[in-house]
Specification:
Elements: E1 3-9, H1 16-24, E2 32-38, H2 45-55, E3 60-64, H3 73-81, E4 86-91, E5 95-96, H4 101-111, E6 115-126, E7 134-135, E8 144-145, H5 147-151, E9 162-164, H6 183-191, E10 195-208, H7 219-236, H8 242-263, H9 266-277, H10 288-299, H11 302-314
Parallel strand pairs: 1-2, 1-4, 2-3, 6-10
Antiparallel strand pairs: 4-9, 5-10, 6-7, 6-9, 8-10
Helix pairs in contact: 7-8, 8-9, 8-10
């Protein structure tokens, strides 16, 4: 078995058929299996995946919860059950757009043994139409990155992920409790064993909708979750990446402080600036001059700011 596709689903009645059809349309020169890890849905999702299993019993295996786990145990059991050389991830509310996605990623990993995982770009679609679609991975992203880059932010959409099976014997016990953040800690664990490859092609869609575990959170809640993620990951990995983590915290919250100030939300900007100071304030991303400039804009009256700027220009 070359690839195990792990589909994770809970209350995705409106989306799961499209997700599974996008997996079944894959054209490959190798066999692949589909593992559906379903977490005791209440909206009819289970009945839909059972129908697919009856239609494709040789292709699909079901992993069904007896009760709602609401944890990353849904991911763990899927990875443990996988028989493939590589594992591809897909949330039940996302879908793939290219029938050659699995073939291209398997070929990439076959020819890049230094890479522990690879990914491609994905289109982010807001179901309510509140925003125009945008790309998850920014332009000019390098083909090869490392764990150090990944600490600075998660540029890998879950639906684009493929990694080598067996890089570590088992997932650590703490991983289950990171729900609803499923992918980022898993990427970090994989990237400890190799580099990260990128295929610059859009081959999947990530949905933002009100039922999403993470996308439904407010922006302040996402900020808090990210801070907690960094703090917990740092502790779970015995602080061996402490400098990287503190740098990442500083970079993340400094950039959000600038963004909130641009929006005119000075209270949130000041809160982010305080979180930034808890990280590693001066680093390769943030100079002393940039830090002081933001502090002046946040905490000094406008007239005094203009006076200081004018004095510096005269010098």
């Amino acid at each position: 078995m070359k690839i195990s596709v792990l589909v994770m689903t809970y209350n995705h009645k409106e989306f799961i058929a499209q997700a599974l059809d996008s997996v079944l349309m894959q054209e490959t020169d190798f066999p692949y299996e589909i593992l559906i890890s379903e977490d005791c849905s209440t909206d009819g999702t289970r009945e839909i995946v059972q129908t697919y299993h009856r239609r494709f019993p040789e292709k699909i295996r079901l992993l069904l919860s007896e009760r709602n786990l609401a944890s990353n145990a849904v991911v763990v059991r899927g990875i443990e059950a996988a028989r493939g050389q590589y594992v591809a991830l897909l949330d039940g509310d996302d879908y793939w757009t290219s029938p050659y996605k699995l073939q291209k990623q398997a070929d990439f990993l076959d020819t890049h043994p230094e890479c522990a995982l690879c990914f491609h770009n994905a289109l982010v679609v807001h179901e309510d139409g509140s925003q125009e679609p945008w790309l998850w991975t920014p332009p000019d992203h390098p083909q090869i990155t490392t764990l150090a880059h990944l600490w600075m932010g998660n540029y890998i959409a879950t639906c684009s992920t493929m990694f080598r099976k067996g890089l570590f014997p088992t997932l650590p016990a703490w991983y289950e409790s990171f729900f609803p953040i499923t992918d980022w800690p898993l990427h970090i664990l994989n990237a400890e064993h190799g580099k990260i490859g990128y295929i610059d092609e859009v081959m999947g869609v990530y949905r933002y909708h009100s039922g999403g575990c993470y996308s439904r959170l407010s922006q302040p809640d996402k900020l808090t979750q990210t801070l907690q993620f960094y703090q917990r990951m740092n502790a779970c990995l015995d602080f061996k990446y402490d400098t990287l983590v503190r740098t990442a915290i500083a970079k993340y919250f400094f950039e959000w402080a600038e963004e909130y100030l641009r929006r005119g939300e000075k209270g949130m900007a000041r809160w982010c600036f305080k979180q930034y100071l808890k990280g590693r304030p001066l680093n390769q991303y943030i100079s002393l001059r940039r830090m002081v400039a933001l502090w002046l804009r946040l905490y000094l009256p406008g007239t005094l700011q203009r006076g200081l700027v004018g004095a510096s220009q005269e010098r």
